Amino acid sequence: MHTLRKLSALALKQLLRNRLRSILTVLGVAIGMFLYAAVETMQSSLKSVTQSSPDDNTLVVYRENRFCPSTSRLPEHYQSEIERIDGVVEALPIQIAVNNCGASLDVITFRGVPTDSLQAYNPDIEITAGSFEQWRNRSDAALVGQHFAQRRGLQPGDQFEAVGVRVWVAGIISSPEPQDNNVAYVHLPFLQQASRIGLGLVTQFNVRVADASNLQTVADQIDALFAADQSPTDTRPEKAFFAQTASELVELVGFTRWLGLGAVLAVLGLVANALLLAARSRVKESAILQTVGFSRSSVAQVMVWEGVFLGLAGGLLGSLSAALFFRLKSFTLGNEGLTLALRPQLPVILSGLLVAIALGLLASLWPAYVAARKPIVESLRSA
């Protein structure tokens, strides 16, 4: 252990001796790991809204063969018929209005819900500013998700207009459900009239089922019930609905994996090149170290420690910068009225740090071999 400390301290001194080269290498690693962490943040955010878990018990009832919310119209009276099906706990009618059905970074989504049903259906919603009573008592009031409010700079008492709908912000909400943090909840009758859809029509029903293992059975029963109706339905589990409806968004985020792989390879090449140059410029120095008692293994270990330190510093700077960037910007990807909030998570930051250290270690292996392989006499003569 004492030897490892001495070798690591010597490696750190070597990096400090060549400050400009070390700083440039760390910055290069940081840029690569920033890109890697950004890609992993998107992948992680997408996984959280599309990967099913055994506890998922929510179905989404949509108009058959419709995708954009503006084309899905279902009679509101379907609610009572859905709630009579065995296994259904409750059904929430939702009217949705969005400013853009395509893939976009700036999606504004209004969700119109019955006034008395919002808190009962989602009791985990917390009011972080303003009050629920103000929302209840004013017809044009909106409860705005915290990510939406941060992105738009909204506070309680503000007014804003989008999609032809002008609302007054009654409160800011926080929810464990990512979708709730990116929308503005308004009263159902208000949105039905403001969006000119008309009373009695909604975009979808969110249906909560008592037993998660019966999701498909209940979905089939709902679709069979309205199969011969003028508005046949297409019912799917909530996360499967997101994955299938926002397919453009899923493909776009999936493509970013190649960017992450490119960033990793770039970091590997950058660190290896910097250490290889250092090894070749320190041939005489390595020979002197061996002359005063350092083994070839010790000379190689110094080079490996330098790779680890460069990876650690660059990974720390890049991963934390990505986390800070996404937290300040509150980016949200949207498609077909569904939103995906890009939020940094601790596992992503830690994985970026570990990958950077591993890349620094891997990139140092060949330079370490180059630094230690030459005989002492040959090294002294060639220097």
TrEMBL record:
It holds the Pfam family MacB_PCD. It is a multi-pass membrane protein. Keywords: Cell membrane, Membrane, Transmembrane, Transmembrane helix. The chain crosses the membrane at residues 20-39, 258-278, 299-326, 346-372. InterPro entries: ABC-4/HrtB_transporter (IPR051125), ABC3_permease_C (IPR003838), MacB_PCD (IPR025857). Its main location: membrane. Residues 261-375 form the ABC3 transporter permease C-terminal domain. It is found in: Cell membrane. GO terms for cellular component: plasma membrane. Residues 22-224 form the MacB-like periplasmic core domain. PANTHER family: ABC TRANSPORTER PERMEASE (PTHR43738:SF3), ABC TRANSPORTER, MEMBRANE PROTEIN (PTHR43738). This is ABC transporter permease.
